[in-house]
Each structure stands twice: as C-alpha cells, then as structure tokens.
Specification:
Layout (H helix, E strand, L loop, with lengths): L1 H25 L6 H18 L3 H22 L4 H33 L1 H5 L1
Helix pairs in contact: 1-2, 1-4, 2-3, 3-4
C-alpha cells in the first residue's frame, strides 16, 4: 500500500503540473511547461517524503505550497501575489467542483432513500 501510494503521488505530480500550468499562463507566466513541471517536481518532494508520517505530512504539504509559490515567482517570472494566485485559484476551483459533486450525490441518495419519503 505504501509503495502504491508513493507511485500514485508521483503520477499526480504530473497531473497537477498539467492542471496548474494554464493558471500560470493566465496570471502572466513567461516560461513554458517545462519550467512549471520543474517547479512542481521540486515542490512535491516534501509531500512525497513526509506525507506518510501523520504530523509531518501536514508540515510537508505546507512546505510544498511555500516551495511552489516561491518557485513560480523565480522560474515563471511572476510577482509574489500572482504566484500565490496561480496556486490558490486552482485549489479553490477543484475543491469547489468536488464539493458540488459530493452535495449532489448526497442529495440524490437522500431523495432515493424510501425512509426519506415517509418523513
């Protein structure tokens, strides 16, 4: 399970880099996709190393976010505010998307439950 989780984390680094790159371009990033992937690889390292340790996993996620913001500032030629936006906006959009899906699934399961019809 640990090895599978680690391998899934490595694959997710590539997916996250591909998903964040359009937002970097929207805020004015000057470099190409290879620079985005380079920053994403460096930023994912603390999470991949310490993500399996309970308390250190949270610290690794925070540290990865800091590395991502600073790396985008340096490698993509963004200001600090734009690099923070390039990291925060995709997280907010995808979290909102999944929250809407969870609420929709919950409402459908409540509606389809026969006990709900009796109340």
């Amino acid at each position: 399970i640990i090895i599978g989780t680690f391998l899934a984390g490595i694959y997710l680094v590539f997916i996250a880099g591909a998903l964040i790159h359009p937002f970097i371009l929207l805020v004015g990033g000057e470099q190409g996709f290879s620079q985005t992937m380079k920053v994403q690889m460096y930023a994912a390292t603390p999470t991949l190393l310490f993500g399996w340790v309970p308390v250190m996993g949270i610290i690794g996620i925070v540290w990865s976010s800091i590395i991502m913001v600073v790396g985008l500032k340096e490698c993509a030629g963004l200001s600090l505010i734009r690099s923070v936006l390039a990291v925060i906006v995709p997280i907010f959009l995808f979290a909102s998307f999944f929250l809407i899906i969870i609420i929709t699934i919950q409402s459908f399961t409540m509606f389809l439950n026969p006990i709900y019809w009796l109340t």
